[in-house]
Design goal:
CATH class of the largest domain in chain A: Alpha Beta
Number of helices of chain A: 15
Mean pLDDT of chain A: 93
CATH architecture of the largest domain in chain A: 3-Layer(aba) Sandwich
Shape of chain A: flat
Structural class of chain A: alpha/beta
Helix content of chain A: 25-40%
CATH topology of the largest domain in chain A: Aldehyde Dehydrogenase, Chain A, domain 1
Low-confidence stretches of chain A: none
Oligomer: homodimer
Strand content of chain A: 15-25%
Number of domains of chain A: 2
Number of strands of chain A: 18
CATH superfamily of the largest domain in chain A: Aldehyde Dehydrogenase, Chain A, domain 1
Radius of gyration of chain A: 26 Å
C-alpha cells in the first residue's frame, strides 16, 4: 500500500500497472497477503489505537464547535468494544471465501480443436471512497486483494491519522508478500475526489461507501461506472388477502429493526378492503414501538375510529412529499390503495405504479396469501429485490449468504441488489485452437461450426 | 412503435412506462409480436423499397457533391441482392432463440420457508443509436422485444425515409399484439442525441452502432452506461516456439479476412529469435495478399535480407504512431520483441506490456506451442478476448454460438466481448417467506440462517 502524496493521476496509473500483476497471482499468494495484513494489524493494535485517539481528540473539538455530528464521532472511534477485533475477523472471513477469480461459466466447442471458454477475471482498478469509519480500509483492502483488483482508497479527513497508521502497517505487511505494493493506494490529499472521478483510463469502477450525497456526487461526476445506490425508499404493499399477524410482524420488523438502514421500509400501501381490519393492528404495533404514522385521508379516518384515543392522537396527515421521502427514522407514510371490484388485479397494479414512480428501485415487498398476486407484483415492480411475505431488512449480502457485502446496487447493469465478491468480477473469453482462420468457415464447401456445449471442467 | 415528433423526454418517458408492461409479458406474446412484424414487413416490401429509393436519390446527390462517402451509400441501399430477405430472416432467427427472461441462476434456502432466488430480467429502456443502415431497425426492434426491453431508436438522417416506412409497418404490426406500442420509439428529430444521452432517469443503457466517433461521443456525453467499443486495435504475438504454418495462417486470416472489421489484427509482435525464420514466411504471405507492412528496424532488416526483391521493396518503416493505429485496411505494423536468455518469460511479458499499453482491450492472440506460455499471455493481457493459435476474427457473437450479436464490448463491467441477448439482461432477487423478520435471527437464542444451496428448478 502506498501512502501517496502523489497526484491522483500518478496514484491511478501505478494502481493500473499493479493490477495486471495482481491479476496473475494464484489464490495462495493473495491469501498469504491477507494473513500477513491480519497479523501485522493485530501486532500494531496499540499504535493504531493511539493514532485513532488523536483523530478522536480533533473530532471532539469539532463536535464541540458543532462542526461534526455525534454519529460521525461514533463511527470514527476504533476503541469501542469489539471494533478492532471485528476488523481483524473481517479479514479472516474474506480470506476464507472461495476464490472468485477464474471461475469457468461457459465452455463451447466451436469446432473440433477450437474450444471457447468464458471465465471470471478481476475488473482492474477500483476507486473506493468512504467517510469516517477507519476500519473500512482493512475491509476494502481485503476485498480488493481477495478479488485480485487494485484499489485506490480515499477516506474522509476526520480519520486521517487512523488511515495513515493502518495503511503504514498494511504497506509493510504487503512488502513480504507477492502482492505488488502499489495495488492498494491511499490518497490523503484533500479534494482529490473529482480529479480521480475523471480518470477513466485507469479506474474501472467507483464504489462510494457513505452518505447519499456522496453517492449522488459520484454518480454525477464519474466518467466510469459507479456501483451503489443513493436512496433506499422501500415499500410494503398489504394486499386484501394478507394474513394479519404476518402483516404486523413484517411491517414492524421492516420499520423498526434498524430504521436508519437503506433496507428499512418507508411507505406502506394498504388495500382499501383491509384498512378497517389489518391496518389498525399494524398501526397499533408500530405506534407502540414509537413509530410516527403519516397517513392519507382514508387510512387516517379508518385508524382514528379503530385505535385507542392515546394512539389515534399521534396520527399525522401525510403530505405528497412524504411518499417520496426516505425518512431513515421512526416515521412511516401510509397510503390506501383503492380497488375496483370488476378488476381483481387493479389494486396490485396501482401499488406497482406507486412503487415504480415513488420508490428507489431497491427492495419492495408484498404481503399476500396468493402466489399469483405475489408473482404479478414481483414481475411489475422495477426493483433489485422483490420480497413476498418477509421483511425488507433481509436485503443484505450476509443474509443472502454471499459471505461479504461490497454494497447494495440499484444499477440496471453489471450487479444489482446485495453485491458480494462476484460483483468485483467481469468475465473474459479464452479461445484455444490449432491454427484456424475464420475464412475456413461457411460458404459453399467451408467448415461448419459445431457449437457443442461442453461440461464446465 | 411510435414515429415520434415528441420531445426526446416524452419519448423516453413513454418508453419507460411501456417497459414495465413489456417486462411482464410471457414468451409467447413477445414471439407473436415478432411474427407479426416479420409478416408485415414481408407484405410491405415494395413500399419500403420505394422509400429507400427516395433516400438513395438524395444520397446520390450528396455523394456527387462529395458530402457522402460511397461506403455509406452502399450501407443505405436496401435493394441490394438478399438484403431485404436477410432482414426478414434475422427476425425469425431472433424469434427462435431461447427466451432470456426469467432464467434462475441461484436458489438458496436462507431458512426453512425463506427461499431466495436470483433470476434474469430485462434492463428496461435501451437507447440504440445507429447510422446509415436501415435494416438495423428491424434487427434492433426484434432484439428488444425478444429480451422484453423497450427501445428508443435514433437513426442517421440519410435513411430517414426508409426508417419512417419500416417503423410505420412495425407500428401497425404491434397494434395487433400484446406488446405496448410505445415499447419501440423512433426519434427522427435532428440533433436529439445529446438530449437523450442525459435522460438517465428513463434510459438504462446506450448501445451505439456505428463509427468510432459515434461511440466516443456517446461515452463522453452519456449519463447512463454505454455498451460497446470505440476502437478495435487487436494484436498477435508470435512466440519463439510458434509453428510456422500456423503463424502464417492465423496472421493472414486475422489481417485479410475482413480488414475493416474491429476484430482484424493491426499489430504483429514477433519474438526476436524467429524474425529470420517464421517472420519472412508470414510477411511474404501477407504481401502476396496486398498487405503493406510497417516494420520496426530489426524486423525490416531481417525481412529485407530474406524476402525476394519485389517484396522487400514494398516494406515500410514503422513510426511510433503505427503501433497505436487501427488501420482498418490492408496495413500491418510489425514490432520485434527482444529476449533475455536468462529469463524465458521476459519476451512474453514485453509483448503483454505492449498490448496493454497500445491495444484497445478487445481481442489479442498468441501463437505458441506451449500451454504455459499461452496461459501466461492470457492472464497478463487485459482484454475481453484472449486467443491461442487461432484468428482474432473469431471474436464474434455468431461464431461464439450466441445466435445473435448486440455488439462487442470492451467495458470492464456488465458485458464484455461479443454480447448476445444475455447482455440485454440484468438480474433481480426474489425472496419468499411466511412472515419472517430480520430481528428473529442472530444474537443469543435467535434463529440461524441455513444458507442451503438449492437446485435450480
Amino acid at each position: 500500500m502506498s501512502l501517496t502524496n502523489a497526484s491522483p493521476e500518478q496514484a491511478a496509473r501505478s494502481a493500473k500497472i499493479s493490477s495486471r500483476t495482481l491479476a496473475t497471482l494464484p489464490t495462495h499468494a493473495r491469501n498469504a497477503a491477507l494473513d500477513a495484513i491480519h497479523d501485522a494489524l493485530a501486532d500494531a493494535r496499540e499504535d493504531i489505537l493511539a493514532a485513532n485517539a488523536r483523530d478522536m481528540e480533533l473530532a471532539k473539538k469539532s463536535s464541540q464547535n458543532g462542526e461534526l455530528s455525534p454519529s460521525i464521532m461514533k463511527r470514527l472511534d476504533l476503541s469501542r468494544k469489539g471494533k478492532f477485533d471485528d476488523m481483524l475477523q473481517g479479514i479472516k472471513d474474506v480470506r476464507a471465501l472461495e476464490d472468485p477469480v477464474g471461475r469457468v461459466d461457459l465452455r463451447t466447442e466451436l469446432d473440433e480443436g477450437l474450444i471457447l471458454q468464458r471465465q471470471t477475471c478481476p475488473i482492474g482498478v477500483l476507486l473506493i471512497i468512504f467517510e469516517a469509519r477507519p476500519e473500512v480500509i482493512a475491509n476494502i483492502a481485503s476485498l480488493a486483494i481477495k478479488s485480485a483488483n487494485a484499489a485506490i482508497l480515499k477516506g474522509g479527513k476526520e480519520s486521517t491519522e487512523s488511515f495513515k497508521a493502518i495503511s503504514t502497517v498494511i504497506s509493510k505487511a504487503l512488502e513480504s508478500s507477492e502482492v505488488p505494493n502499489d495495488s492498494i493506494q491511499l490518497v490523503t490529499t484533500r479534494d482529490a475526489i473529482d480529479g480521480l472521478l475523471e480518470l477513466s483510463q485507469y479506474i474501472d469502477l467507483v464504489i462510494p461507501r457513505g452518505s447519499n450525497d456522496l453517492v449522488k456526487h459520484c454518480q454525477q461526476k464519474a466518467h466510469m461506472p459507479v456501483l451503489g445506490h443513493a436512496d433506499g425508499l422501500c415499500s410494503i404493499y398489504i394486499h386484501s388477502d394478507a394474513d394479519k399477524d404476518m402483516a404486523v410482524n413484517v411491517v414492524v420488523d421492516s420499520k423498526t429493526d434498524y430504521p436508519a438502514a437503506c433496507n428499512a421500509v418507508e411507505t406502506v400501501l394498504v388495500h382499501e378492503e383491509v384498512i378497517d381490519t389489518i391496518l389498525p393492528a399494524v398501526a397499533s404495533a408500530l405506534i407502540a414501538k414509537g413509530v410516527v404514522l403519516r397517513c392519507d385521508e382514508a387510512s387516517r379516518t379508518a385508524l382514528s375510529s379503530h385505535l385507542p384515543k392515546d394512539q389515534s392522537l399521534l396520527l399525522q396527515s401525510a403530505a405528497d412529499a412524504d411518499f417520496s421521502t426516505e425518512f431513515l427514522d421512526l416515521i412511516l407514510a401510509i397510503r390506501t390503495i383503492t380497488f375496483d371490484p370488476k378488476s381483481p388485479t387493479a389494486a396490485i397494479d396501482t401499488a406497482i405504479d406507486h412503487i415504480n414512480t415513488h420508490g428507489s428501485h431497491h427492495t419492495d415487498a408484498i404481503i399476500t396469501a396468493s402466489k399469483a398476486s405475489a408473482d404479478r407484483f414481483c414481475s411489475g415492480v422495477d426493483s433489485a429485490c422483490k420480497f413476498w411475505n418477509c421483511s425488507t431488512r433481509f436485503c443484505d449480502g450476509m443474509r443472502f449468504g454471499f459471505g461479504t457485502e461490497v454494497g447494495i446496487s440499484t444499477n440496471k447493469v453489471h450487479a444489482r441488489g446485495p453485491v458480494g465478491l462476484a460483483g468485483l468480477m467481469i468475465h473474459e473469453y479464452r479461445l484455444a485452437g490449432n491454427g484456424q482462420g475464420a475464412a475456413m468457415y461457411g460458404g459453399s464447401g467451408g467448415r461448419q461450426y459445431t457449437h457443442r456445449k461442453l461440461p464446465l471442467s
